[in-house]
Design a protein that fits this description.
Blueprint (H helix, E strand, L loop, with lengths): L3 H21 L1 H12 L9 E4 L8 E4 L3 H11 L13 E5 L5 H9 L4 E5 L3 H11 L5 E4 L2 E2 L4 E5 L11 E3 L8 E4 L1 H9 L7 E4 L3 E6 L1 H8 L12 H7 L6 E6 L10 E4 L1
Amino acid sequence: MPTKSFIASLSDVLKRIQKFGKRFGHARGLLLWFRLRQHVRKQQGARHVVQVPGLHHPVTLRAMTSDVEVFHQIFVDGELEFDLHMLPSRIIDAGANIGLAAVYFSSRFPEAKILALEVETANFELLRHNTAFYPNITCLKKALWSGPANLSIANPTAESMSFQVSPSAKGDEEGILAVGVKDLAEMFRGDGARPGVVGVGMSAVVLHLKREYWDAIRDGIKREEYRARGPYWGRRIRNKDFSEVILLCGYPKRGDDSLMIRRK
């Protein structure tokens, strides 16, 4: 007889496969899910290539790191599929990590020029690799700060998606160069355009809820939503600032705002 834990694990796998199928189609979704699963058999940090349906070029991830988690957030959960009132001509991705968000924006807004900032060396090398075939993406090994400064990584042992910076010690000339928003505006001013989107990492927490819970929150019956305090949510929200929480009813189609609740 199958154990309860085995049945629960199998159910979880089937739900994930179903999610991939809804997003990419049954055959392509299953193939992508299987390709991502292969990373658990690789040594941590080993690179593996994933072809995403809809992208012109594959992306490279590092096995057993937060790269796979970020991939899920962007390409499977659709956390960047927010609506805009106008098409952006310039996009700043500050804290670009390995370039997955920049690649997504390049695919969604092919006419926009994208500036991707990343400070950590290993992340930056993979950022350049993943964006090499996208001529509208420019990569800079710099941080976004209140103005020009020398910074250092405050938590070098953290997951690759969670690095934070702080001012370097006085006299440290080998710190990370930082630029301010005004400096970035000057970079764009040369071609007479202003940034259309400023993306500083993930500025919103996106939660996918069952219909009954989403309805209860919409109707004011349920006032709070919880997540288990574990490694997954710890990596996503600990020591981070977010501008809003987005509550989605299941996985609605892009542009269906009727199934979205925004909380500042």
